[in-house]
Amino acid sequence: MKRLIVLSIICLIGFQKANSCDVCGCRLGGLSYGILPQHYQHMIGLKYSYAHFHAEMDHDSEYFSDEYSDDTYQRVDLIGRLELFPNVQLNVQVPYLSNQMSGSHQSVASHGLGDPMALLYFTPFNTGESTSAWRHSLRIGGGVKFPLGDDQKEDGGVIINRNFQLGSGSLDYLLSTNYTFSMNDWGVNVETSYKLNSSNSQDYRFGNQFNSSAYAFRYLESSIVGFLPFAGMYFESAQQHRDGKVDQVNTGGEALFATIGTQIYYKRINLMLDYQYPLSQKYNSDNVATITAANRFSVGLIYSIGTAD
Questions:
Q1: What is the pLDDT of residues 84-128, one digit of tens each?
Q2: Spatial separation of the C-alpha atoms in residues 9 and 30, rounded to whole Å
Q3: Architecture of the domain delimited by 4-305
Q4: Cα(180)–Cα(127) distance, integer angstroms
Q5: Does the predicted TM-score (pTM) go above 0.90?
Q6: Cα(275)–Cα(259) distance, rounded to whole angstroms?
Q7: Residues 40/307, Cβ–Cβ less than 8 Å
Q8: Rounded distance, CA 272 to CA 263, Å?
């Protein structure tokens, strides 16, 4: 069980102004595997993620009432890994989304399959399987998000807030690097990722997104199971959206989260748990709008397949 290294984590977030309500929300999305064992060739699993945002708009006017929106994003991802060659892996993620907006001027629910992602990871070096006390590994990944989710859902004949659409309608590109260093049972993982978004058929483009994290972990083992608790920081940043050549207000921004979690290993089964608390956040809201991200959490269950190295 000690032969553990970290896969790339890509957590992506976007922001968009509502159509019938000026209070905007945010969205949860991305590719996130966490800390996984690498001594099996393949894997398959499910992961559940939850995020909540609160938005307010204070018009300070007798003619316009104040607005608010409570936005909840949930997703269940079918995730898989296929080892094509000793140093090359194909990672695939297919999401099912459940988005709910409950606001003063609009209430919308959107459920269904989202945009799937596929990434190839290359490992230029990995000493994680060695008997040395000092071990490190580097993984470099690149891939594509395919526009298969519905991006034309309507409410009362009007296209709903693009954050609540199941897909973006655009073919997007993903890059990721992940470095892990460990000494005996202690280790550090540092990773970055970037998502380059293209325009969809309506000439709307979500802002490009950057994410970075740094986690410290320790591996603990009993006679039956293994534990890998970890803690650290996660940072995310998104550029403003563009509709044609026009930058969209109340879109984009950045946030820093404290993260704690653990992995539990039993034979070929891996249970993943993590919790994120916002330390700072600054979204590109206008003078009357306020957007606040709440705590997040996720839980996943992975089953390893194939021959152990």
A1: 998 899 999 999 999 888 877 778 888 999 999 999 999 898 876
A2: 8
A3: Beta Barrel (2.40)
A4: 10
A5: no
A6: 6
A7: yes
A8: 5
